[in-house]
User: Fold this.
Amino acid sequence: EKGRLDAARRHVPALLLHGLRRGSWRSIDGAIELMIPPFTIFAGIMLVLVGLSLFSGSAPLIVVAAAGLIALGLYTLRGLSLASARNPRIYRALLHLPGFVAWRLWTYLGMLARRGRVQWTRTDRTPTR
Assistant:
């Protein structure tokens, strides 16, 4: 994920500029793809916003935060319903969701806390045929 953030920082401005100057939808699409945060970040943010809105007691904020959380849930369930055609037991994956979201948020917080450059190490892969 650190590499993804570095790639976004480095390439999004050039991709957008190129896309806008030349009318290249591929460049614009590439830039947008790099700017979209991972789904778990959205989920974590929505959970925090629901908590903050409940703490504030503001009905409009509670409705907006709850609507966002419901939308994320429906998006996830739709993906699972499409995938369940091939694997009917895929709904068991939801049991791992809270731990996965917590792990991803912890990873991102740790990554943001380390401001310096991180040494990238290439992963050894065996060739496939």
In short: The first helix runs from residue 2 to 22. The helical segments are 2-22, 25-35, 39-56, 59-83, 97-113. The chain has a mean pLDDT of 85.
